[in-house]
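FAQ: What does the model actually see?

It sees only this:
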Amino acid sequence: MIKHASGRHRHGLLVTGLASVLLAATAGPAAATEPRGTDPLQQQVDAVHGTGAVGAFAEVTSPGGRDSARAGTARIGTGRPMPWNGRFRIGSATKTFTATVILQLVGEGRLSLEDTVETWLPGVVRGGSDGSRITVRQLLQHTSHIPEVLPEVPALNSAEGYRAERFRTYTPEELVATAMRQPPVPGTGWSYSNTNYMLAAMIIHEVTHRSWAHEVRSRIIRPLGLRNTLVPGTFPLVPGPHAQAYTAFGTGTSSDVTVLDPSMAIGSGSLISTTHDLNRFYADLLGGRLLPREQLDEMTTTVPTPDRGVSYGLGLGEISLSCGGSYFGHPGNLLGYRTWGGATRGGARTAVVYVNSDGGRDTQEAMTTLVDRELCRTRS
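And it is asked to produce this:
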């Protein structure tokens, strides 16, 4: 049995399907039941844990300071609490970093959002998809209709596949070639695909003649002082303090899936970070410290997502707040680590929460509720 452990820490000033997360965001913040208590953030973290997550951790920032809270355990069968500011795989929240690098290059005049994929990657997007008719903007916006490749990765889809291939290394070229053997997604409009961001990482390499990893480190991680954010490459461990990650692969038995070569998610979901670093990233991004105004406006100009009631820009989703207005963020999910977070326009308020397991049916809804309530809360 998992022993419950919760706590609160106050500080001074300072890869997956997005569609399912956005659907949870539309359910409304009243859907999760808060336990009794006096600390609102701890109440929300307890509520997330109560949906079936092994452990939960959240940090929020505002002009008045920074708060964090935790509940549950870092490892099944122990009483070890979730670590303060522990590292975890951020999954598709990585896409916002990739989009930021692309938009920085646009601001430098080194490429255009209207450039075609064929311009930078001749012959790579082929078959049923036509790289000469797909733009960089469409990759970042998920309107390219390029097929999704991650269902073809065995380590992400079953316990047997994970055990057999958790140390397998992929190249983006290999992954894209696999995706190209599938037919493009039918219809028009928005259609989420991790392959888009693998192609974006390849374009970054072509434009700069340096790796996606190098550009993310030199343009975002080092300038912002994100000391606990890592581009792991093929390294399979989560270094430093961290909670173990668990997934059941759709069965009733959870497996420890912390160890993983994340190369299948280059550009789309491979980064490791902490709630503190993600809050800093969102605050500085939305605050205009990473992109010129023109490029930030491009990033936050959104298109509708089908039947979700929310919208998507370039590497960021826009979600309505229950108190009025909206915020920008991105979910992440990579084998047992699930996160949701974002910032209000201008970056004055941020909130990030993560869990270290699949959780239950209501876990994602409780996470989006936490972010909504914390971004809406008046903090001194």
